[in-house]
User: What shape does this take?
Amino acid sequence: MKPPRLARLLAALLMPPSYRDEHLGDLSEGFHRLLPDVRAARRWYRRQALASILPALRMRGRALRDSDPTLLMRSLRQDLLYGLRSLARSRMFSVVAVLTLALAIGVNTSIFSLVNVIVFADLPMQEVETATVLRTRNPALEVEQGGISLPDFLDVSERARSFEALTALADDQWVLTGADVPTRVGGYRITANLMEAWGLQPLAGRGFAAGDDRPGAAPVAMLSQGFWQSQFGGDPAILGSTLRLDGVEHTIVGVMDPRIGFAEFALAQVWAPLPLERTGGRRDARDLFVVGRLRPGVTQAQATEEVAGISRALQAEHPETNAGWAVGSSPVRDALLDSEAKIVLLMLVLTVAFVMLIACANVANMLLARATVRQRELAVRAALGAQRGRLIRQLLTESLVLSLVAAALGIGIAFGLNRALVAISRGVEAIFRMATIDTRVLLFTVGVALVAPALFGLLPALKASRSDLTSGLRDGRSGGGGRANRRARGVLVSAQVALALCLMVVAGLLARTVYNSETRVQGFERQGLVAMELDLPADRYGNGEPQRIFYREALTRVAAIPTVQGAALSTVVPGVDAGSRRGMEIEGRTLGPDDPRPPVLTVTVSEGAFDVLRIPLERGRGFETRDHGQAPPVAVLSAEVARRWWPEGDALGQRIRFGTDANSPWLTIVGIVGDVLGPNAEEAVAAYVYLPFEQHPTATARVLARSDEPPAALADPLRAAVWSVDADQPVDRIRSVATAQYERAASSYALITLFVAFALFALAMAALGIYGVMSYMVSQRRAEIGLRMALGAEAGAVHRMILAQGGRLLAGGLVVGLALALMLSRLLRSVVYGISATDPATFLAVPTVLVLVAVAANWVPAWRATRSDPVSALREE
Assistant: This one.
């Protein structure tokens, strides 16, 4: 009967080497004295092992104080130099191990740089822990994180007592004139108290003063640091001069604090005051991002409760606009990610952890195989007096050298991977642009490099140092080829297979999701369709007739371009923009005040838009010249809306309206058109209600032109056509609809590329692991195989025997891997589209691929075994 293994290992590790054997011997004697009462003996041994912890630590402390520090440094230096020479002699092993670890450390570093941006990055405000974000939600309209309207913001500001200050900002864009060509600049309108509440200081000049955001105040603006440098060369004399935005002169009062350049804020060029005019805002225009600063002593829960109460009061006071809209609050960092993004982030972290474990398992297998070759060397060192701990330290030093070299190479791989993600996403995702290799990321990489040797080097070091001196000195085969060593290598390979299967299942589910999203029915012909964005300045075009006149003339000029086959106007690009999500009321159907209105997406289009987009007309008619501003209001439904809310097929001639205001006009349904691609992957088709532009003019619209010319060749004629109507009107983002759709899904393409790359890496490592173990096993059993074949065994039988051994390793990994994959797939339920998270095809195809790869990896060693000469194998033995 042996003492408890873990307790014995604890005592052995803690006790200084000079006292270890004596201490373990005393414990063993005490243990055997208490036998045959096994339970009492084990309890006594464990108590003694625990009681020896503090004395052992004190003894090690005294030994460390009495030791010569220069001796320790010389010893570490010797270990390092010896390790470098040893690895240099095994160049192929060192190169493969370093590359394997470098890839794993590189992807871990890259993903951590993304996590660093989201979780650990410095937000553009002081005392982040007291900052809270106010957002709206409306489950009926499927809005989870919406903005707040200006009137609601003013009401909450007046009634809430939990906040020292409430600040608001809204993205905006202006037409900058006075240069060679009109330019559109983007930025934000902010409340005058935002900089003070966020703890920001202007880089030059001043910030906005109290009253700058009040109605009638003189127009002022601040420049971002980047815009100040690029447009004005960083000239401080620009302060006090004017900037003509949307035809209005704005006095430049300062340069914004560069610390605000976080995420999308980094793209801002101009900052202007947000006019706090209660009568100037609509309660259903929820476009403000609101951040509050909690008062001292107020908790987040108290603030949330107060805001919820104010929200309920506003719903009762303004049911026509606020019914169903709830206002909530949450810490700033919690508001950065929605639930789906958190799942994707968690999957990325788990995935790169699996990649690291697979790489460590592969290198550990390589070290176990290398330990067999080094048994004679280790036995000689042990015979000359080297303690086992000294041998373990030497082997771990070699592992540390491998890890540090791999970390240095991994940083370069991470940098390249970050650049690749930006390229794949075409720079449209802020998180990929912001991911950098900063000090925190470097410290993480160093930490991984220091921890990794314990993952891949400790087990091989423990097994290699446990040598039989006699056999090791005689033939150099002690320890390394034992049953325990083979079992350890088999377990490592099975773990690689299990982790590889998990990664491949995740990659397969996400790849099928992207494929399903891309192969959805478009519903329109995007080939040859070019989109151009226009946004008319309010000071010159206001609302109504001036907008109609401009867009009529612009469409006429665009349609007159010789290479253009047709032009139309739309407020959305199909499959790219979502449209306005609104609640629809159907005439004749009674709904209570708390009943949700059917959610639809409204789109404003011009006459002839369905022909240009080539959306088929199923029933009724499209918009015509007679649907002018003074004509009875009309609407056209997509087939999805007609099917969902008029299943009997009687939608034509029915009337609908939006909102709960009794004065809202009724719209007569005059046509049904085919379904088109929805803006989100989870929506197979969009529930669109189309409105005629002449009856619902808007400042912002997309001009869609159909042409066989590429967008680059069409860009100049399109700009010339618009400038012939208004030379001060900027023309933005001329691109094909196919490009626009790609850019909308750019982050998905980048992420699926990552997951597929991880899965391929895992598959390659699993195949190499199986091949390595089987090759080693064949080399160890060469004499046995030769004897079997000499006694008449057929090559096929030997072949099957070796494949069966490899199959056992594979089977264990597949069983564990499938169980893990089923657990992980539950996290993907809200992410996958078009398939279930336990898609049978994926869960069948992935193991099949793994089996085929494993059979190929097994076949080569088996073939080599059957091709060997039995006589030569026996003679060598």
Q: What stands out?
A: Confidence is low (pLDDT under 50) at residues 476-481. The two ends are 37 Å apart (CA to CA). The longest strand covers residues 163-176.
